[in-house]
Design brief:
Layout (H helix, E strand, L loop, with lengths): L7 E2 L5 E4 L5 H14 L6 H14 L3 E7 L2 E13 L4 E11 L8 H15 L5 E3 L6 H9 L18
Parallel strand pairs: 5-6
Antiparallel strand pairs: 1-2, 2-3, 3-4, 4-5
Helix pairs in contact: 1-2
Amino acid sequence: MDLDKESLAMPSPCHCRIATLDDLDSLVKLFDQYRQFYECAPDQVAARAWLDTNLKLGRSIIFVAETNAGIQGFTQLYPALCSVELVNYFILYDLYVCDRARRGGIGRALMEAARHWATGQGAARIDLETARSNTAGQQLYKGLNYQLDEVFIKFSLEINS
């Protein structure tokens, strides 16, 4: 199945598919809410610019979950390379389900859509990070057989601070 042209039906109360520019208005609102969850200031203009660029340049893959009420959540994957293992993989950087739709299987459906698609792309794995305080997300990831990395330590260097 070509997921760029067809949608991926999941056994859940929603329908997951790859986002297009037609989804931008709905995605901007959700993406801005997602960023606020991680304590960023609201900024729908910047959110729109980021998503518009990602969609137009294909620098990420965004999945949306729809119900009869519209788009209820999204996940965004970025391509990455591992020079040690000599493989391609994806970083699942964003996952968000709107408040009213949480605990209904939408996050799981999005994660499964991402896994299915990445498998079809020949990816070796999907990596993700989450806040230590995001216990609901951690439970979801564990339930989907994601393994906690207890070997490597993450460091960051702020360049533009």
